[in-house]
Amino acid sequence: MGSIAEEEPMHPLPPYPYDTNRPNQTNPGQVYRPSQEYKDSGRMYMAELHAKSDSRIRRSSIYQVATDPEGPGCCALLLALLSLILIIATMPISLCMCIKVVQEYERAVIFRLGRLRKGGAKGPGIFFVIPCIDSYKKVDLRTVSFDVPPQEVLSRDSVTVTVDAVVYYRVSNPTMATNNVEDYGHSTHLLGATTLRNVLGTKCLAEILSEREQIAHWMETTLDEATDPWGVKVERVEIKDVRLPVQLQRAMAAEAEAAREARAKVIAAEGEQKASRALREASLIIAESPSALQLRYLQTLNSISAEKNSTIIFPVPMDILSHLIRKK
Length: 328
Known about the structure:
rod-shaped, alpha+beta, 328 residues, 8 strands, three-stranded antiparallel β-sheet
């Protein structure tokens, strides 16, 4: 495969025909529609174009593999042959070193003479390695959580706050997590702390206190995009606590207390106003019927006697008082 074969010429795209029943051509605003025959010919042309492109990519990749100067050389083949002979000579003891097992939540990335083996990560279950020339690294696929250290951040409105968070992530691609980054766990920890500071620096204090879910979602999206080339998937981010300075807490507490007192005074005044209106309406109703006041006296006497008090109040009929007033 020293050279790529010449490609076959593609069928040219047919001319652009129109429907035979098109309207009068003298109308400049009329838009012509392509015929069904032209649409079918265009679909066939695009399908042939995609097939040619895929074939070209496959042939070029095979050509690169066949002419790869960094492929296994004679020394690598010789070492592999000697290792196989040694394994066969020391059987069955050598099987203990060749057979490896990974758990259901683990994957093994195997390197042969420093080069990644084809097929990606192995597991779960049993896999074989050649002790002399193969090395492997286990990668845990379970979700890992870590606490972002408390970050002292200056918000957009110049308020110093201390915020800490927790991040949940897992390895989605063991091969990328092994080859693209030295320590994906430590890198994710540092990136989480930096992202938290950058996100909170663009928020006001009120937004930090009230929009925790939005901040967490924004951090999750940013971390997920940054760790995608490392084969790491950020599943969840949560803001744990927001701590304010003591002086700021006292000022906010005094402000909240004053606001509550103001609301309480307003509510009490509204209650007095409603009560006065109710009493005025009650007095008008009692004035229409003189016996209503006597009934009210009797209800008051009943409520006082029910509490077992030693003081007894006798209501004086208003008729007697009215006669005395008239005599005077």
